Amino acid sequence: MNVIFLDFDGVLNCPGCHGHPHNDHKAEAIVSLRGRIGKSHVAALNKLWENAPSNPIVVISSTWRLMPLARTTLSGLLRKAGFVGYVDSCTPFSNQTMNRGNEIAQWIRDLRPSLRKQVESLVILDDDSDMGDLMPRLVQTSFRVGLVEEEIQTAIEVLNTPFDMSEIKHMGAPEARYG
Q1: Spatial CB neighbours of 164, under 8 Å, sequence gap ≥ 6
Q2: What domains appear along the chain, each with residue ranges and CATH number?
């Protein structure tokens, strides 16, 4: 199983997208999100999904996952924006001083052992760099530009690099919860 960890702001939703709100009211923004997800960003995400080794699952790592019914809502919005892949779940959240990389590591650790062994590779699409030991798995986008075609080849190369649990041995978070 290959996994794409997906952030929204700075990846699919950016100031370059038509009508981007310049505020932090994510709950308000999601209501009209369809108009602000850049079509070129979704096309790039589709290209990654279609050219990745095996069909990867998408796990939402964006702070937008903290909204009620986040996986269902965001999965539906991605589908309406033209995404052809599959959104599996969201990463956990901890109000402890936890970075995005630790949340991703916790998601992997929380898998049943039989599923954990099936994680062949992973890539993180994010505009932030708080990935800790998972930095080599990050394809960092520009907040102002979002995901672009040139970054897809890098993401495919990352997905072609086998994942080993030792990559997250020092990472994790106490009392993580899922949104």
Answers
A1: none
A2: 2-178 (3.40.50)
